[in-house]
Recover the amino acids of this structure.
């Protein structure tokens, strides 16, 4: 079987890789990956016919026996993809120095922060960054393999749902800098507990401490500060410098300005009086903005240019978007949801000035044994705020609503909350069912929060609002 150095020479000859035979344009190095519901090895020969220059396949697969000199046989195609990405990252230099890689992870805000950092750094550098949220064991290698000779800085987003996930990804990307946006209750089914979340996200800090590299730290976040202190990042007597680059609203004397119906977007007043007018909805995005500005300033982007770059960023893909239709104003944050992000979204929505406010909330997935309790907690908060209407999607919120209505939750405000649940809350099995109900009961003149885990497909209600 071919070694990684020889495969790298072929990759440099091809210039690009793909794992999807449907996207072939010609000349690519095709990796036949195998998953639970697919086997790319079955498409390897078709990929070659469609224009791929070479195809990397599992030596144990049926296609490996085919007599075609363009087949590269390896023990494990995914591991080979990861090894190739690590090799490419290690072999990439800028002005004679190893390429700078900034890695970021966190429970919430990863993709928004990554896009803001990309926007700010692009003022001065040619940046290669994770596309979309391709942040897993396949996406991270593909991001690294997109690095070309013009790349000056790479920004790599890393996701995790199980212990060890971040360790695996940093061992591939070999970052020089790291940033954790925050830690919260998400993927508890995989992590087991909030402590499991912190331990896994903290694997980024573990790696950077071992390599004596830098951490961008939100100094306002007690969990992150504790994680940094536990790893002695602030003050290591064996190293002549601190590993931490601190930032934060309070730390830097900045503050979030009130939003209004005329300007519902996040506005931040910096310590020098400069105002940052963003296109993001939600005060919870302030930390993401401050992180991007901190990263940019560290790499020599002026504050003025960093602010302009942040102000030019327009969110997409149902993340912190404000959409105005002919009938309503929509706050769309429906790409993902967990207890932490749901609480932040509801807190922000409570502060929005509007005559009529409607919350449309989809189930939070992958919470394991804590799922029902977490849905009850979120629903209690939504009911206590006093929105004009609450529409719920999914079985977990349906069970939470039944518990509150039937007195199954111990709470001093239970009676008033139960009444609110009867008067203002409705439950639907799916987002499609909710959309159909809205079609028969039109909503107009309202400000609507739309939030839920990706699996609930809450974006389906947008077209009827």
């Amino acid at each position: 079987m071919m070694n990684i150095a020889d495969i790298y020479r072929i990759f440099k000859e091809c210039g690009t890789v793909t794992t999807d035979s449907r996207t072939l344009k010609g000349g690519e190095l095709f990796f036949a990956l195998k998953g639970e519901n697919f086997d790319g090895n079955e498409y390897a020969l078709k990929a070659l016919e469609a224009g791929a220059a070479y195809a990397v396949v599992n030596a144990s697969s049926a296609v490996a026996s085919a007599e075609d000199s363009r087949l590269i046989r390896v023990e494990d195609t995914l591991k080979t993809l990861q090894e190739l990405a690590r090799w490419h990252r290690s072999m990439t230099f800028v002005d004679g120095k190893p390429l700078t890689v900034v890695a970021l992870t966190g429970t919430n805000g990863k993709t928004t922060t990554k896009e803001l950092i990309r926007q700010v750094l692009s003022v001065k550098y040619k940046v290669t960054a994770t596309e979309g949220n391709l942040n897993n064991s396949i996406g991270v290698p593909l991001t690294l393999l997109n690095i070309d000779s013009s790349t000056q800085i790479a920004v790599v987003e890393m996701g995790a749902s199980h212990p060890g996930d971040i360790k695996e990804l940093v061992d591939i990307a070999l970052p020089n800098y790291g940033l954790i946006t925050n830690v919260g209750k998400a993927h508890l089914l995989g992590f087991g507990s909030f402590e499991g979340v912190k331990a896994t996200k903290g694997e980024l800090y573990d790696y950077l401490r071992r390599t004596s590299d830098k951490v961008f730290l939100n100094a306002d976040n007690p969990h992150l500060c504790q994680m940094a202190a536990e790893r002695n990042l602030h003050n290591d007597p064996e190293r002549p410098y601190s590993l931490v680059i601190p930032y934060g609203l309070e730390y830097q004397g900045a503050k979030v300005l009130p939003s209004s119906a005329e300007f519902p977007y996040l506005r931040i007043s910096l310590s020098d009086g400069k105002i940052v007018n963003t296109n993001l909805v939600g005060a919870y995005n302030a930390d993401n903005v401050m992180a991007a500005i901190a990263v940019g300033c560290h790499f020599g982007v002026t504050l003025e240019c960093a602010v302009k770059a942040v102000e030019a960023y327009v969110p997409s893909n149902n993340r912190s978007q404000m959409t105005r239709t002919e009938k309503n104003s929509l706050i769309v944050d429906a790409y993902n949801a967990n207890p932490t992000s749901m609480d932040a979204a509801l807190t922000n929505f409570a502060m929005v000035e509007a005559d009529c406010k409607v919350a449309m909330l989809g189930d939070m997935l992958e919470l394991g044994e804590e799922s029902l309790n977490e849905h009850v907690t979120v629903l209690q908060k939504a009911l206590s705020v006093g929105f004009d209407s609450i529409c719920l999607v999914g079985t977990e919120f349906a069970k939470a609503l039944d518990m509150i209505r039937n007195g199954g939750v111990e709470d001093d405000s239970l009676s008033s909350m139960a009444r609110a649940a009867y008067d203002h809350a409705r439950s639907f099995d799916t987002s499609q069912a909710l959309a159909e109900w809205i079609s028969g009961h039109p909503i107009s003149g309202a400000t609507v929060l739309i939030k839920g885990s990706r699996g609930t497909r809450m974006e389906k209600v947008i077209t009827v609002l």
User: Anything to note?
Assistant: The CA atoms of residues 20 and 30 lie 8 Å apart. The longest helix spans residues 371-385. The mean pLDDT is 91. The chain has three domains: 4-76, 92-312, 321-464.
